[in-house]
């Protein structure tokens, strides 16, 4: 046999994988739901399972509650990531409980939100379950302007990690193209350039039109108003070019923001999932359960099961099996709700504990600490995917306003003396420098870099330019008055 012949060998490796139980899967899916979505979920479950019924306010069945608590303890023991009450850390100076009173204190609006309007358009398409899920995730990833700044590769990773959806960038792009056909025009664009191009195409401009050629081939000249040589390059008159530029200037660079305004959308129309109250140094975190009915297993169904079991015939045994399945499903559903509530509260507490200084300060952004999903996962004992599910699409009402939980997550910036400071603190400092600049001689990115360095932020000029763009602040020459 030749020396360079291939030698085929077989090796055996042991790979450890975690398989979630049906109960854990149910809890995980519930964690992703907001308070209103959870209400809809419960209403649907009551309709589908006659063994599940709502407890009227005047009724309180202690025996049933004790039985459910025993069941919850049994299921919690089999769940690695969802623990029982004995595992809740003893946090001194903190409280958390359900919030089901003072409905007038919760800002509620009948207005349809920006995201809901897009989801309604998504539901009008004929999509399978996977396509629908990816579409909903893309819509949830849009910023307030309706633009998608998250790379498709990142969405691909998050879908498989957090939702178990195996896909690729090409498939995600196909769903994104569908969303880009929604109203208002420009929704789902990945840049301002693409946003304007989408609107032009909706108006009937093809790739050969002057407007599209101007954006496609001379976008940098267009945004920086370097128009002197464009008539010759585009082979049009100056007047024709000015008309095209005026048409583009009338397009909407923020379709999502305009849509929210037309719907009367603002923070006060968001229904919070948590409510926080401050009393001195004590922070009370409450779960907003005012929309979620209290449930129990139907006594009638339990009695029917007993009767069928006593009979002993084959027909009655089949009926008993059906009743037992419904009762077990009802118990499991109620247990999942309780596990959801516990997980939500513990995770929210962990976030509030990490950002305690910010909350007690009344909203001083300079006191926001750098915080990522892994920090809260380590603090609470839950895994990162659980923290992500809790943090996504959830809001908390603080005494001075309502904030998405994602607001509290931010990267760290290392200062010259080695300290870690929140990137939002850098943003605020950058904004203050620009607000205070001489408008006749605005600060260049290089000058901003030097001034940030004086305040302890050592960062490159290119990075400062990126931060400035993130704040939607134009370059110095466009800020000049």
Write a concise keyword list for the protein shown above.
Arc Repressor Mutant, subunit A, 5-stranded mixed beta sheet, 9 strands, about 50% helix
The strand count comes to 9
Strand order of the largest sheet: 2-4-3-6-7
| Overall pLDDT confidence | 77
Low-confidence stretches: 1-9, 59-112, 261-268
Residue fraction in strands = 5-15%
What is the rounded Rg? Answer: 28 Å
Count of domains? 3
Helix content: 40-55%
The secondary-structure class comes to: alpha/beta
Task: Tally the helices.
Answer: 22
Write the layout of secondary structure elements.
Blueprint: H1 22-31, H2 35-48, E1 52-54, H3 62-77, E2 94-99, H4 114-123, H5 129-141, H6 152-163, H7 169-179, H8 192-202, H9 210-217, H10 219-223, H11 230-234, H12 238-249, H13 255-262, E3 274-279, E4 282-288, E5 295-297, H14 299-311, H15 314-354, H16 356-361, H17 373-380, H18 384-391, E6 395-398, E7 401-404, E8 412-414, E9 420-422, H19 423-435, H20 445-454, H21 461-470, H22 476-479
Parallel strand pairs: 2-4, 3-6
Antiparallel strand pairs: 1-5, 3-4, 6-7, 8-9
Task: Compose a concise summary of this entry.
This protein has helices spanning 22-31, 35-48, 62-77, 114-123, 129-141, 152-163, 169-179, 192-202, 210-217, 219-223, 230-234, 238-249, 255-262, 299-311, 314-354, 356-361, 373-380, 384-391, 423-435, 445-454, 461-470, 476-479, and strands at 52-54, 94-99, 274-279, 282-288, 295-297, 395-398, 401-404, 412-414, 420-422. It is α/β, with parallel strands linked by helices and 481 residues long.
Plain-language structure description:
There is one protein chain. It is built from 22 helices and nine strands. The chain has 481 residues and is α/β, with parallel strands linked by helices. It has three domains: 21-107 and 270-362 and 372-409, no CATH class; 114-262, no CATH class; 412-479, Homeodomain-like (Arc Repressor Mutant, subunit A, Orthogonal Bundle). Strands 2-4-3-6-7 form a five-stranded mixed sheet. It has a two-stranded antiparallel ribbon with strand order 1-5. Helix 17 (373-380) packs across helix 18. The N and C termini lie far apart (82 Å).
